[in-house]
Amino acid sequence: MSRSETRRAADTTAHQAxxxxxxxxxxxxxxxxxxxxxxxxxxxxxxxxxxxxxAAETHAAAYALGQRYVGMADGEAAxxxxxxxxxxxxYGGASSTGVARPI
Length: 103
Hints:
By secondary structure, the protein is mainly alpha-helical. The protein has one domain (about 30-103). The protein has helices at about 5-20, 45-55, 60-70, 75-80. α2 runs antiparallel to α3 (about 60-70). The longest helix has 16 residues, at about 5-20. The protein is elongated and about 70 Å long.
């Protein structure tokens, strides 16, 4: 390695140490749910569905919604959520009234 290459590598390393790449920040964690479902239940569903599950009006609606999306990749869940008429548009669904309701 030549002197210029060594210096360039050192400069790059120093720059990376001084200006690290910003880390992606996760979505803020929900601390309570409208239905009273434990917040830990939200960890079982894809991120794009969590707000809808948290906003469900009843335990039954929250668990039913969660069961429809559990195990899906987030992208697939987001696509399916867009057409879900049991979920309000406020939470990514296709219903213009209400929030997550049992179907």
